[in-house]
Write a structure and sequence with these properties.
Length: 263
């Protein structure tokens, strides 16, 4: 359920541009719709494509922007800590931004999340700096719901401060629209993200073996040893996940929070 909340927020208190981090999921999409309707002249909407998003995610980003009539800038990381501006037609789906990051920085993991930092946060920052918007001269909006309060940090969370939005509200909102995010929900965000539970990654490996091959190839090419894996938390190489058919329940782990959330 969503209900109004009288809290002031930084967007009300200043006239700074609002950076809308549109991850491609339903929650951040609703946040973008809300903020662009309330502050139409102040929003800068940004979607960072990692190269490991599903086609349905890219379609959804384009549909949301078109249907609700706001512009979204699509960005991709480039080697040497550069960025490229792309669109739905030119957006990479073969992993190039992610593989170039791995070439530059090595394999990311839960303990060294260079993927979120570089593919999204710093790519966004480099773009904003290029158009003259410095960190202290902007407000960064993140699509965290009221039922995810444990994930709050130092940014602007309009779905908590302006209203109380939970997952049921988000799903109801998108069911009422003429389109929705049409992907297997297990593949949300980067399709084989190491922050997903081991149980979920085993299921993905069974159902989408071709998809998982890219991750296994990256690990084989850039790891060099078992000291550097995507899954340093469980210390499980992707080649092992591919070969597993099942695990006992007490061996399975939980998922970790990621600001790339797609729900």
């Amino acid at each position: 359920m969503a209900r109004s909340k009288p809290n002031l927020n930084p967007a009300v208190q200043t006239d700074l541009p609002i950076i809308v981090n549109f991850s491609g999921g339903r929650t951040s999409a609703f946040m973008a719709v809300y903020l662009n309707s309330r502050y139409p002249d102040r929003c800068i909407n940004i979607f960072c494509n990692t190269g490991k998003e599903q086609s349905g995610t890219l379609d959804f980003v384009e549909q949301v922007s078109g249907h609700f009539n706001f512009a979204t800038t699509w960005l991709e990381y480039r080697s040497g800590r550069q960025f490229a501006i792309v669109n739905r037609q030119s957006a990479c789906q073969t992993g190039r931004p992610f593989s170039e990051l791995i070439h530059d920085r090595g394999i990311p993991s839960k303990m060294a999340r260079s993927c979120t930092k570089e593919l999204k946060e710093r790519t966004t920052d480099r773009y904003l700096q290029s158009i003259g918007i410095k960190p202290r001269h902007r407000i960064t909006a993140i699509g965290i719901r009221a039922d995810e309060r444990h994930r709050l940090g130092q940014f602007f969370y309009p779905l908590v401060s302006d209203m109380t939005v939970d997952v049921h509200f988000i799903r109801s909102f998108w069911r009422s629209q003429p389109f929705d995010l049409m992907i297997d929900e297990s593949l949300g965000n980067c399709d084989f993200c190491f922050l997903k539970s081991l149980r979920k990654r085993i299921a993905i490996a069974k159902k989408y073996p071709d998809l998982v091959k890219w991750w296994s190839d990256m690990e084989s090419k850039f790891c060099g040893s078992s000291d550097f894996l995507f899954d340093m938390h469980n210390h499980v190489p992707i080649s092992s996940i591919i070969n597993q058919s099942a695990l006992a329940a007490d061996q399975l782990d939980i998922e970790f929070d990621c600001f790339c959330s797609s729900s």
